[in-house]
Amino acid sequence: MKLDVWGVEASPYLLKIESLLNYLGRDFRRLPRDGGRWENLVTSLRLGRARRRGTVGRYPAMDALDEYPSVPYLVINGTEFQYDSSAIAQWLDAAASSMAPPFYPPDPASNFVARLIDEAFDEYGLYMVHHQRWVCSATDNVMGETTAREMSRLLPPPLPALLRTRLPRRQVRRCPYLFSVAPDGYRADVEPLRVPPSRPGFPPTHTLLQESWHAYLAAMEALLAVQPFLLGEQFTAADASAYGQLSMNLIDPTAVASLGVRAPRTYRWLLDIRDGRHRGSAGGIAVSPALQPLLDVIMTTFAPLMAQNERAYRQWLDAGQTVFNEAAFERGDALYDGELLGHPFRAVAKTFQVRVWRDLCAQWGELDTEVQSALREILPGADLFEDAAGSRGSNFWPDRR
């Protein structure tokens, strides 16, 4: 079975998938960077057709709350596509022909914690690293150039040159959608279209994201001082997710310098995974006391944010709202007000995060009472996992523009 990854380095989820494949020792290419122009064009057309027909897979099954991303996708034998990095990890576990241990441990408690960390970095971690890239590294961000170079293997001239300029402007414009809202009057030494924006009626979130970033890095430093991976001696989906997000900040000079100074162990850990030194790691898996600082910060950021988003989605759905996610954000629809770490925020209800939270809550509900009781000792606010009980099964299919 031939596997490739379709996407660009700007995507933390592509980096996550690549770390999974590297762990397994699988040969793969990153397309379009490593493909020929004709192959890239054919793959792009096939992917576009599969997206339009709804035949792109998400293991084990699609859900009405899912939304196709721009990138990345796993390309199977050049003709089939899978998406969602966490679902791809599960697909790789199911399709494994090697003796490699699974990315999601079989022990129920370890499995739940791995899934929790995985989703926390995928959802809330994205907000922090996106903020580091487009706000904190605004003056020396290189992702426009990097992405244009990768896409030059697909796009004809002069489109890569346009992408080099327009991608940074687009991503900065999207900052409020991705939870990074500048205070009124914010300034940066860049062209006006690349100054991180405020948004009328939205509280600023830069301080919240910086506090969160520092807390996550401090927790990672404490954990990696004790053990080589987040759940012990073996690389899991939790490590892949943390790597995918945090390694976004191994490229832009300001973010790299900040990461290296504030979290030197984490910085070296990211480099080791990037260079494939995690390949074949094996050993004990456990929910150890070293995880406590990371679980504490996850349960005070990711978990309450997901719970607030899910409640807002239900309220808007009951009110007849049919458009969510970025399309609704652009219209000023499906918004809700919330609070994290004592900071107010305003956000749009996101259906794909509803699925993440409901799946996690469903897994919690399937745990034995004894396992739940043990996890409650280390997961402050675990009652949040009860909030989405009975909320699954909606036939609503969101606007997917």
Describe this structure in words.
There is one protein chain. The relative contact order is 0.13. α4 runs antiparallel to α14, α7 packs across α10 and α12 crosses α14. It is globular and about 60 Å long. Strands 2-1-3-4 form a four-stranded mixed β-sheet, with helices on both faces. A two-stranded antiparallel ribbon has the order 5-6. Helix content is 50%, strand content 6%. α1 links the parallel β1 and β2. The protein is built from 15 helices and six strands. Among the domains are: 93 residues, Glutaredoxin (3-Layer(aba) Sandwich); 87 residues, no CATH class. It is an alpha+beta fold. The C terminus is likely disordered.
Properties at a glance:
single chain, 401 residues, alpha+beta, Glutaredoxin, disordered C terminus
Topology summary:
Elements: E1 3-6, H1 12-24, E2 30-31, H2 37-53, E3 73-76, E4 80-82, H3 85-95, H4 108-136, H5 143-151, H6 159-173, H7 206-224, H8 237-246, H9 253-262, H10 264-274, H11 292-300, H12 302-318, H13 325-331, E5 335-340, E6 343-348, H14 351-366, H15 369-376
Parallel strand pairs: 1-2
Antiparallel strand pairs: 1-3, 3-4, 5-6
In brief, what are we looking at here?
The protein has 401 residues and is α+β, with helices and mostly antiparallel strands. The protein has helices at 12-24, 37-53, 85-95, 108-136, 143-151, 159-173, 206-224, 237-246, 253-262, 264-274, 292-300, 302-318, 325-331, 351-366, 369-376, and strands at residues 3-6, 30-31, 73-76, 80-82, 335-340, 343-348. The protein contains 15 helices and 6 strands.
